[in-house]
Design brief:
6-stranded mixed beta sheet, 16 helices
Length: 499
């Protein structure tokens, strides 16, 4: 049996390829960034061809660095930015337009039109999702309306649509020469086109958003053999796992029991709690989503709270304000001050996601005085991620009806000691950081390895995971309440900015 499994971690800002051993330890990796395209305010696009090329390049680089060949891999999995969607030509494999990124808000007017007939929750019972431009369906509606020939090509069977997992899987398994057009249940559950009860595309939703069924991928489980990679550095390797990035992190943190909760700190911030084999309908502004489905086993569901801007705020301090030279510098700058100095930063650059769902919100910096300096802005930026996480966790406790005793964390910002300690303080619970922080990539590798027998069960993975550090709360309840009240006031100031 091959010694390793690997995963393609296709994120919002970069693509990585990581090889793991049986203990869940990374043994080789490579990473490449791709361009962020902003044609207009609120519009965000990616070049899917660049993403595909980067995928092949990082796979080759990682294998070369470790002296490995494709034959050394038992399977490869895909984890990807969710909701980002595109349309491409079935015969040439070329996209008809850049991919519309999950952050893109150009479909806001279409969302408002749909919400006028039944409100923003009109499809929540079927999909677990509120109407929002965040999800794929309104983005596809825009593409079919605005890209010449796209709708006719899709209806005629000459064009395919899908999220990034489907784009990569199709090309890797042959593309125009027999590529497999599939998307797993976790990604499909984020399109607003899949019915949570049937785990299939829903005819009413397809009619509403004008998406031809023939153009859509086949919905599959998160762990099964979909096909074999055709050509390139991974030729001959089974493609056997697909998970949306946040569900992959849930799996990579071994959150297999109901109530297990994780938060991933990346470009955005995503908190998920496993609710078991029955979906829990949110009453507090959260998303009901598929957590994972392994083979023919019953699917597991999750409640999720999505924060649009987390690490992206640190990038904004770096790129737009020039406050820091490198993203990692934000922690040292924040440590120059003892607290936020009364400053709060609400990063509602494209509205507020869970639990508010307010597209009319915009970013504000509140509480400024002559006392405030660069350090206070840096600390307020870090604290914004922790406050948004608290908002989501409170909603999650309300919906799930159970206490959440600890929070497992991962993602790029989880290495920030200042942020993690403040997160524990403002939540009042322990925050656990794993030894292997590449949990998103590990989750996809686990799904792939499970399908080919490299791992036997979730217990195999859980047994290998260790906690690198536990952050215990050290803040008084009075101080916590005062800081949270200030944050709530700042959020109120951000609302209603867009008419």
């Amino acid at each position: 049996m091959p010694q390793y499994v690997a995963s393609i971690d296709q994120g919002t800002t970069s693509t990585r390829f990581i090889v793991f051993d049986r203990g869940g330890n990374p043994v080789a990796s490579a990473q490449r960034e791709h361009a962020q395209i902003f044609p207009r305010p609120g519009w965000v696009e990616h070049d899917p061809v660049e993403i595909l090329d980067n995928t092949r390049q990082v796979a080759a680089e990682a294998l070369s660095r470790a002296g490995l060949r494709a034959a050394d891999l038992g399977a490869v999995g895909i984890t990807n930015q969710r909701e980002t969607v595109l349309v491409w030509d079935r015969h040439s494999g070329r996209p008809l337009h850049n991919a519309l990124v999950w952050q893109d808000t150009r479909a806001d007017a279409l969302v408002a039109r749909h919400a006028a007939d039944g409100g923003h929750d009109r499809f929540r019972e079927k999909t677990g999702l509120p109407l929002a431009s965040y999800f794929s369906a309104p983005k596809l509606e825009w593409l079919f309306a605005e890209v010449d020939g796209a709708r006719a090509a899709a209806q005629a069977g000459d064009a395919l649509v899908g999220t990034i997992d489907a784009w990569l899987a199709w090309h890797l398994t042959g593309g125009p020469r027999g590529g497999v057009h599939v998307s797993d249940v976790t990604n499909a559950s984020r399109t607003q086109l899949m019915n949570l009860a049937t785990l299939d595309w829903d005819e009413e939703l397809l009619r509403t958003f004008g998406v031809p069924r023939a153009a859509l991928p086949r919905i599959v489980s998160s762990s099964e053999s979909y096909g074999v990679v055709s050509g390139g550095p991974l030729a001959g390797v089974p493609l056997a796992g697909i998970l949306g990035d946040q569900q992959a992190a849930l799996v990579g943190q071994a959150c297999f029991e109901p109530g297990a909760t994780k938060n991933t700190y990346g470009t955005g911030c995503f908190l998920l709690t496993n609710t078991g084999t029955q979906p829990v309908r949110s009453r507090a502004g959260l998303i009901t989503t598929v957590a994972y489905r392994f083979g023919r086993d019953a699917p597991h569901y999750a409640l999720e709270g999505s924060v649009a801007i987390a690490g992206a705020l640190v990038q904004w301090l770096r790129d737009n304000l020039g406050l820091i030279e490198r993203s990692a510098d934000v922690e040292a700058l924040a440590r120059e001050v003892e607290d936020n100095g009364g400053v709060y930063f609400v990063p509602a650059f494209s509205g507020l996601y869970a639990p508010y769902w307010r597209p009319d919100a915009r970013g504000v910096i509140a509480g400024l005085t002559r006392y405030a300096n660069r350090g206070h802005l840096a600390r307020a930026a870090l604290e914004a991620t922790a406050y948004q996480t608290r908002d989501v966790l409170e909603a999650m406790r309300s919906d799930a009806g159970t206490a959440i005793a600890e929070l497992k964390v991962d993602g790029g910002m989880a290495v920030n000691e200042t942020l993690m300690q403040f997160q524990a303080d403002i939540l009042g619970i322990d925050v656990l950081r794993p030894k292997t922080v590449e949990t998103t990539a590990l989750g996809a590798a686990f799904a792939a390895g499970l399908a080919v027998g490299y791992w036997r069960s979730g217990a195999d993975l859980a047994a290998e995971l260790t906690v690198e550090r536990r952050f215990a709360p050290a803040m008084t309840g009075v101080r916590r309440a005062a800081l949270t009240a200030g944050w709530k006031k700042a959020v109120d100031r951000s609302l209603g900015w867009v008419d």
